[in-house]
Amino acid sequence: MKVRELTGPALFWYGLFLMGPLLWIFILSFQTRGTYGGIVWTPTLANYAKVLEPAYFLIYLKSLILAFSTAAGTVFLAVILSWAVVSVDKKWRILYLAALVLPFLINLIIRVYALRILLSYDGPLQMMLRAFNIEFDPFSLTSNNGLVFYGMITTYLPFAVLPIYSALSRFDFTLFEAAVDLGATASQTFLKVVAPSLRGAMTSAFALVFIPALGEYIIPDLLGGAKTMYVGNLLTEEFLKSRDWPLGSALAMTLIMVLLLML
After folding, report:
1. Mean of the pLDDT values across residues 245-255?
2. What is the distance between the alpha carbons of residues 130 and 126, in angstroms, rounded to a whole number?
3. Which of 16, 57, 124, 252 is deepest in the core (most CB within 10 A)?
4. Strands, DSSP E only, in the chain?
């Protein structure tokens, strides 16, 4: 069987369900919004000119900061967790990995809502604080940027753990012991012996987290209380509420271009 016969169905699927919609979004980004939310097929660059306005720039900047901090935080925690898992006996490793991945068999929205209910006005945490007469602002606990960051970290952590664990499980730890025997400190040993071996895995983990985190919508919306606008929320507003598909398409294409440039 020829290679093209094997790759043909995959390329057809890729073109129909990925490149096709992207091409359609690209075409829409140059059109004009109708009076009642429809699409007027009049080519224009006004949508991309509007994307360059300071308000949209700040939204992209905040989204980039959130995505970068989420990716960096998950990679840092993933290295620690992966090191802990590979340090135990092999027969227990699968159990540790299962404990990490098992909660993600539950739908994302359910997990985010569970966290929101835990911190809600009548939730267990606030009831406990009232029981101990601890003063607090009930609304600051339910919706804030710190809670959004926590939700992002806990959601995307397995995406970083699995590639780093895979790399660490193949690492020759006799090199670590040799470096320690030669007088290197723990930090020097990690930076000069372990980190170079994990560079590829850490880069992959960072990209796996950064790309979806940049366009995340559910977590900022439910845990942030829509107090801070991010790109994912902005796209939802433009497509579903404002019904400005051309501007939403221009914003989406700009996001894709930003990701391509960064990669």
Report:
1. 93
2. 6
3. 252
4. 32-33, 39-40
**Mean pLDDT value across residues 227-243:** 88
pTM for the full model?
0.87
User: Rounded to an integer, what distance in angstroms lies between the CA atom of residue 102 and that of residue 87?
Assistant: 21
SS3 content of the chain, % helix, strand, coil (to 5): 80, 0, 20
Which of the two residues, 123 and 253, has the higher pLDDT score? 253
List all residues 6 or more positions away from 37 whose beta carbon is below 8 Å from its beta carbon: 242, 243, 244, 245
The residue among 61, 78, 67 whose CA lies nearest residue 210 is 67
**CA dihedral sign, ordered 110, 116, 117, 119:** positive
What are phi and psi for residue 32, nearest 5 degrees? -115, 140
Distance between CA atoms of residues 2 and 5, nearest Å: 5
With a cut of 70, say whether residue 19 has pLDDT above it.
yes
Place of tokens 């006004």: 46
Q: Of 49, 50, 32, which Cα lies nearest the Cα of 41?
A: 32
